[in-house]
Design a protein that fits this description.
By secondary structure, the protein is an alpha+beta fold. The protein has one domain: Alpha-Beta Plaits. It has three helices and six strands; from the N terminus they run βαββααβββ. A four-stranded antiparallel β-sheet has the order 2-3-1-4. It has a two-stranded antiparallel ribbon with strand order 5-6. It is flat, with a radius of gyration of 15 Å. The mean pLDDT is 91.
């Protein structure tokens, strides 16, 4: 499954500063069973908006990690809170349901 969220950088802070913290938190989270990688993207035309994509083996595994999130990750998130606004986009099927440009569907 894919977990997506949007990060809005507040004035006086930079995407690079957030990215440094994001890498620290992601490095810890990716040690969790079922973690399959993360990416952070900058929005074209608006460098203060980022898209984070985390891939997990399943929603249940991600939910389990979230419920027992390491203290170091909670601390990093709390440190960033004054400088960003986070908007969860949602959770999406990954490779279980994909529609290609030709209309082909992969279940």
């Amino acid at each position: 499954m894919l977990f997506l969220f949007e990060v809005h950088i507040k004035p006086g802070y930079t995407a690079e500063q957030y990215a440094d913290a994001w890498v620290r938190a992601s490095t810890i989270i990716q040690q969790s069973p079922g973690a399959r990688g993360t990416q952070l993207h900058r929005k074209i035309g608006d460098p203060d908006v980022l898209l984070a994509i985390a891939s997990w083996e399943s929603k249940e595994i991600r939910d389990s990690m979230e419920a027992r999130q390491p203290e170091a990750v909670r601390r990093i998130i709390a440190e960033q809170a004054p400088f960003v606004e986070i908007r969860v986009i949602g959770e999406f099927d990954d490779a279980q349901w994909v529609v290609g440009p030709s209309g082909d569907r992969y279940d």
